[in-house]
């Protein structure tokens, strides 16, 4: 591991650490420059200076963006924490959502976003019109996104994350089945034999060809035919409305599908091992007392509570 000597640190332009932190979050020079209000040439110049000062390439250009070196990853946690501590100290009690221009990035599967974010965005426009909200959907390594603060928070089923993260449940919900209104099974409850005999639509962000439904069917010596697999729920209402496919999904997704029109929601004849699908907001403990994050977490809780009340 390289070490920065005390004299080098004294002469280091600390603004370069802001450049480092932005690129660690964005992994893209143009987006990182825009995030901190620099032109791309100025940002690239600052990155060149930082590389020379630290004696490391720090970020390697790849087809997928700027990949951090091993040392950059090692530096990212302490640098990000220090910058957040400074920002928190400067903001202190002066945070005012009505005038704030903070940017908040939430890592979330699409179904949590489609359930909560329409009402969340309305609340933000009303209470904090200057705050910029971004959602991303990592394919994996959710913890890395929180460690490097590419995401300020994650929404997912993660009730017991590692100790460096805090977790709070927003809501729990059942799994149900969605199909078009004139589907042969839409009349009411149906048997496992009927369920396993129809064509199924599977949503799998990682591209897996099975989920807990297939494991549950296997315990009953049954299988199902998955006719179509897709990575997100967004197109599900349109596909279900024009096919005989059945989608097994969280109740919040079913509600959105139902509101799309022409679809029916039926109780699922199977139950997952955990009985209920839960969504937790997860954040790094070093952001626990950050005034912006405290306010945003409270707002998200309020929106979740209203959504649950409206569902019952």
Automatic annotation (TrEMBL):
Gene3D superfamilies: Periplasmic binding protein-like II, Winged helix-like DNA-binding domain superfamily/Winged helix DNA-binding domain. GO terms for molecular function: DNA binding; DNA-binding transcription factor activity. Transmembrane segments: none annotated. The keyword Repressor does not apply. Pfam families: HTH_1, LysR_substrate. Keywords: DNA-binding, Transcription, Transcription regulation. Belongs to the LysR transcriptional regulatory family. This is Transcriptional regulator, LysR family. The lineage of its organism: Bacteria, Pseudomonadati, Pseudomonadota, Alphaproteobacteria, Rhodobacterales.
């Amino acid at each position: 591991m390289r070490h920065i000597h005390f004299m080098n640190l004294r002469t280091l332009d600390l603004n370069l650490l802001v450049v480092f932190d932005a690129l660690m979050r964005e992994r893209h020079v143009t987006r990182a420059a825009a995030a901190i209000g620099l032109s791309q040439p100025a940002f690239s110049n600052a990155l060149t200076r930082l590389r020379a000062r630290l004696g490391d390439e720090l970020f390697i250009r790849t087809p997928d963006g700027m990949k951090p070196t091993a040392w950059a990853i090692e530096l990212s946690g302490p640098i990000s924490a220090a910058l957040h501590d400074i920002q928190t100290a400067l903001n202190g009690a002066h945070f005012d959502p009505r005038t704030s221009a903070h940017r908040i990035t939430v890592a979330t599967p699409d179904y949590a976003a489609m359930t909560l974010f329409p009402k969340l965005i309305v609340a933000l426009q009303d209470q904090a019109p200057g705050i910029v909200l971004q959602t991303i959907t990592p394919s994996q390594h959710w913890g890395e996104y929180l460690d490097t603060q590419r995401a300020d928070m994650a929404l997912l089923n993660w009730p017991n994350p590692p100790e460096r993260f805090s977790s709070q449940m927003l809501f729990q919900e059942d799994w149900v089945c969605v199909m078009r209104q004139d589907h042969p099974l839409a009349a009411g409850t149906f048997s496992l034999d009927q369920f396993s005999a129809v064509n199924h639509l599977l949503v799998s962000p990682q591209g897996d060809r099975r989920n807990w439904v297939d494991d549950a069917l296997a315990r009953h010596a049954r299988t199902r035919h998955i006719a179509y697999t897709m990575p997100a729920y967004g197109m599900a209402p349109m596909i279900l409305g024009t096919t005989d496919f059945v989608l097994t999904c969280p109740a919040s997704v079913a509600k959105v599908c139902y509101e799309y029109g022409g679809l029916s929601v039926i109780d699922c004849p199977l139950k997952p091992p955990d009985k209920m699908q839960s969504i937790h907001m997860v954040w790094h403990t070093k952001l626990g007392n950050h005034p912006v994050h405290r306010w945003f977490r409270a707002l998200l809780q309020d929106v979740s509570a209203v959504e649950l009340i409206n569902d019952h």
